[in-house]
C-alpha cells in the first residue's frame, strides 16, 4: 500500500510569502479555496502544482527548475530559472521529498558537468580532460605497472594504434555507438511543418546529447541535457534558425544531413 499524503497548503499567516488571488499559472486552476503564492518571476503557484511540475522535470532528466507559465499576452514561455531554495520553500517539500530532489539533482548535475568512466585495468573512475581525445591515461595503472597505461574512452579496451584520436582506436569493433544510432535511425514526418521529413534522432549541436522528435508540434526541440532549444531540421539553434525561418515552415537553408560525429560540449 502506498503512503497517502495530505494535500499541501500554505499557512495564510506566513507574512514572508506574497499571496495572490490569481489562477495557478502551472495548472490554470482557479479554485478560490486554494491559496497561491507568487514566485520570484511573478507567476502564481500552489505548493501541490509546484511540487508536481518540478518532480516532472527531474523525471525528464532536468535538474534546473524552469517556469513553464506563458508570459502575459504571448505564447512565449517564461522559462525563468527558480533557485532550489525557492522551490523547496514554496513547494513546501517534505523531508522525504527534499531527500529525493537533492539526490536526483546531484546525480543529474554530475552527469552534465563530469565525464568519467571506469578504467578497464583497475576499475577506478577516470575523468577525461580532453573531450576530443579518445586516448586516456590511467594514473593508477600507470603507477602500478611502472609504464604508461592508456585505454580507449569509446570501446574501453587498452589503447591500440597512434593517438590522440577522436574517432576510434585500432581495436576491432571500436565504433561510436551514438554515431551508429544516428546513421541507422528511421526518418519521420513532421505534420505541423508541412510534412517535411527528417531523421528521427539528432545529436544536440550544443552538447552532443541524443534526442528524438515525437513528431508533434513545431520543428524545434529543447535538449533535456543543456536546455538549449534547436531546430531538428537544420540543426541551428532556434534563435539563429528563426532569423530566416519560423517554427512551422521548412528551413530556408534546407535539411541538415545525418550527423557523422558527436559535438563536444565546451562548458567554459
UniProtKB/TrEMBL annotation:
The keyword Plastid appears for this protein: no
Keywords noted in UniProt: Metal-binding, Repeat, Transferase, Ubl conjugation pathway, Zinc, Zinc-finger
Nucleotide-binding recorded as keyword: no
Domain of life: Eukaryota
InterPro entries: TRIAD_supradom
Stretches assigned to the RING-type domain: 20-255
MF terms in GO: transferase activity; zinc ion binding
SUPFAM superfamilies: RING/U-box (SSF57850)
Protein name, per record: RING-type domain-containing protein
Organism: Triplophysa tibetana
Amino acid at each position: 500500500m502506498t503512503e497517502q499524503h495530505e494535500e499541501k497548503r500554505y499557512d495564510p499567516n506566513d507574512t514572508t510569502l506574497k499571496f495572490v488571488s490569481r489562477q495557478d499559472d502551472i495548472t490554470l486552476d482557479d479554485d478560490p479555496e486554494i491559496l497561491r503564492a507568487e514566485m520570484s518571476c511573478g507567476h502564481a503557484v500552489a505548493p501541490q502544482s509546484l511540487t508536481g511540475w518540478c518532480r516532472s522535470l527531474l523525471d525528464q532528466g532536468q535538474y534546473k527548475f524552469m517556469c513553464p507559465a506563458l508570459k502575459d499576452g504571448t505564447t512565449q514561455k517564461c522559462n525563468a530559472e527558480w533557485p532550489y531554495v525557492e522551490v523547496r520553500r514554496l513547494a513546501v517539500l517534505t523531508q522525504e521529498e527534499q531527500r529525493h530532489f537533492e539526490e536526483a539533482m546531484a546525480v543529474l548535475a554530475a552527469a552534465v558537468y563530469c565525464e568519467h568512466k571506469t578504467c578497464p585495468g583497475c576499475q577506478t573512475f577516470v575523468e577525461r580532460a580532453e573531450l576530443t581525445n579518445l586516448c586516456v591515461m590511467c594514473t593508477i595503472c600507470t603507477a602500478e605497472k611502472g609504464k604508461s597505461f592508456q585505454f580507449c574512452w569509446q570501446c574501453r579496451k587498452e589503447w591500440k594504434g597512434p593517438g590522440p584520436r577522436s574517432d576510434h582506436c585500432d581495436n576491432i569493433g571500436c565504433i561510436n555507438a551514438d554515431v551508429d544510432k544516428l546513421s541507422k535511425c528511421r526518418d519521420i514526418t513532421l505534420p505541423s511543418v508541412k510534412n517535411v521529413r527528417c531523421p528521427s534522432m539528432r545529436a544536440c549541436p550544443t552538447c552532443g546529447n541524443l534526442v528524438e522528435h515525437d513528431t508533434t508540434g513545431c520543428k524545434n526541440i529543447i535538449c533535456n541535457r543543456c536546455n538549449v532549444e534547436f531546430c531538428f531540421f537544420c540543426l541551428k539553434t532556434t534563435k539563429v534558425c528563426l532569423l530566416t525561418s519560423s517554427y512551422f515552415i521548412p528551413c530556408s537553408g534546407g535539411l541538415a544531413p545525418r550527423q557523422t560525429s558527436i559535438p563536444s560540449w565546451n562548458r567554459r
